[in-house]
Write a structure and sequence with these properties.
TPR-like_helical_dom_sf, SusD_RagB_dom, Serine Threonine Protein Phosphatase 5, Tetratricopeptide repeat, mainly alpha, 2 domains, membrane, 20 helices, 513 residues
Length: 513
């Protein structure tokens, strides 16, 4: 494994729940063993130490430079709904204007490094469980601890799947381009504890997706249905948002299959947790459902049952400087730094007439200051403790809606109902004296119009959550221009990020994009 990957946490001895909002265990305070060595056997001596390692895995994945903030931001600012205001090279300027290079440290190099650091820690943990099977079956571990170990394996493999999925969206061609035959990522599935084994060829996009699905299928079978007991003082309601459970794996599979264009598989997975008619609430596992109020979903502590997985932060465990969602999007008058404002010009979402002026997502999550508009979906200024969203139940509903329409090539009735459910929870429902605002099959007129309406709804619903650019690229469509930045066609070399120079230098089998 390349030596540029560095650990942020020492998972073997951090006994505080990093992923659940506790302090980060700082290496310079602990004098640990060299980080290229396998975790000490003592890390598996007690249940609390094993749990600390699981929480540490979440800490790696939710680092601010990866899925704790920057990754979501990159997924929005690559597209055309935000305008860069500060020309700050540290906060995504090259991502916004598509000028990344192999040596772009703050984005191309760091995102790759954080992603693979998390993957390696997950692999180390899984190997450690294998190596300590006998120890985990004896005192002081309880007699039923084998089931807990399966839960932990499920969490680790779900996090690994999430990391690989996330990296694919930036560094590899969309699945639709070549049906997954294009170069993907080096698929590292075993722990790297020394500086060797750097050389590993890229698997294809399809092969990486296959591994993602293997991990998610395993996770679905082995994750807990729900968290029923608090841990280290953390409530079950918090755990069911910030720790993976069975529905988390199912929800992520709907996203993965959507990216692959496997519509029938999206439908099969979503049907596990989405009833055929409203109210839309999962009947098994965590009662994930479409919350009645979108405003409540993002109001602190951001722990409604709509949030299937989000990464938490506290004043003692922050995303880190210039990584925080609110820092980027809130204006300075509301506690942010206003790095990016909303694009109010033609082509931007704010000027789209399909986003109604009375929509609660506009009236509550957009503020106008002078001639500029800003996103206020993440309301917490300093010390920036908003949770970083990964997936919500609303996305599962819209994934299912899109899959049903594309799979049948009709304006499917259930697909239309799901679309209207998400749309209408943020818009006034029709009354006897006002016209209906539901989309109707006759009003839409065609499958193409229905899909356009659905993609617009996704754009509105997930503004600032990192999905916009993924939606464009999974369909192999042009990334629109904004401001002084031109559009990027799928054939353009900058449509995907370059492979970092650090990986090219250390991995002799790596190829450039």
């Amino acid at each position: 494994m390349k030596s540029t990957i560095k650990s942020r946490f020492t998972t073997a001895i951090c006994t505080t729940a990093l992923a659940l909002g506790a302090f980060s265990c700082q290496n310079n305070l602990l004098s640990p063993a060299p980080q290229t060595y396998l975790l000490a056997p003592q890390a598996y001596d007690t249940p609390s130490r094993v749990l600390a390692q699981v929480n540490g895995l979440y800490g790696y994945v939710k680092t601010g430079g990866f899925l704790g903030g920057r990754y979501q931001i990159y997924g929005d600012i690559r597209a055309n709904d935000f305008i860069n205001r500060t020309s700050n090279s540290v906060t995504g300027l090259s991502v916004w204007n598509h000028t990344e290079s192999e040596t772009s440290q703050n984005d191309v190099v760091n995102t790759w490094g954080f992603g693979y650091a998390a993957i390696n820690e997950i692999n180390i943990f899984l190997a450690g469980l294998d190596a300590n099977t006998d120890k985990l079956a004896a005192a002081p571990f309880p007699t039923n601890y084998a089931a807990t170990v399966l839960n932990y394996r499920g969490e680790a493999r779900l996090l690994r799947a999430l990391c690989y999925y996330s990296l694919l969206q930036l560094y590899a061609r969309p699945y639709l381009d070549g049906n997954g035959t294009r170069p993907g990522l080096p698929l590292r599935l075993t722990p790297e504890t020394q500086l060797g084994n750097n050389d590993l060829a890229r698997s294809t996009v399809a092969q990486v997706y296959d591994q993602i699905l293997l991990d998610l299928n395993y996770a679905e079978q082995n994750l807990p249905l729900t968290y029923t007991a608090s841990q280290n003082g953390v409530s079950t309601s918090t755990l069911n948002v910030t720790r993976a459970h069975r529905n988390t794996a199912i929800a992520l599979k709907t996203r993965v299959y959507l990216n692959m264009g496997r519509w029938s598989d999206v439908i099969a997975e979503a049907n596990k947790i989405v009833p055929t008619a409203a109210p839309y609430v999962a009947s098994t596992g965590v009662a994930n459902g479409l919350n009645a109020s979108i405003v409540s979903v993002f109001a602190p502590p951001q722990e409604t049952t709509e949030s299937i997985l989000s990464f938490p932060f506290t004043a003692q465990d922050q995303p880190g400087t210039q990584n925080q969602l609110a820092y980027y999007y809130l204006p300075s008058s509301l506690g942010g730094n206003g790095e990016y404002g909303l694009n109010t010009a033609a082509g931007g979402l704010v000027s789209n007439t399909g986003w109604l002026a009375t929509d609660l997502r506009r009236t509550n999550f957009v503020v106008k200051i002078g001639t500029e508009s800003f996103l206020t979906k993440y309301p917490t200024g300093t010390p920036y403790t908003d949770k970083a969203p990964v997936i919500r139940y609303a996305e599962v509903l819209l994934n299912l809606a899109e899959a049903r329409i594309r799979n049948s090539n009709t304006i499917d009735a259930q697909g239309l109902a799901l679309l209207n459910a998400v749309r209408n929870r943020s818009n006034s429902l029709p009354t006897p004296t006002s016209p209906p605002i539901d989309y109707t099959a006759t009003g839409l007129g065609s499958v193409s119009a229905a899909l356009d309406a659905l993609l617009l709804e996704r754009r509105i619903e997930f503004l600032g959550e990192g999905i916009r650019n993924i939606d464009l690229m999974r369909l192999n469509t042009t990334i629109p221009g904004k401001g002084s930045v031109g559009a990027v066609a799928p054939t353009n070399t900058v449509y995907i990020w370059p492979i970092p120079a650090t990986e090219l230098a250390s991995n002799g089998l790596m190829t450039r994009n």
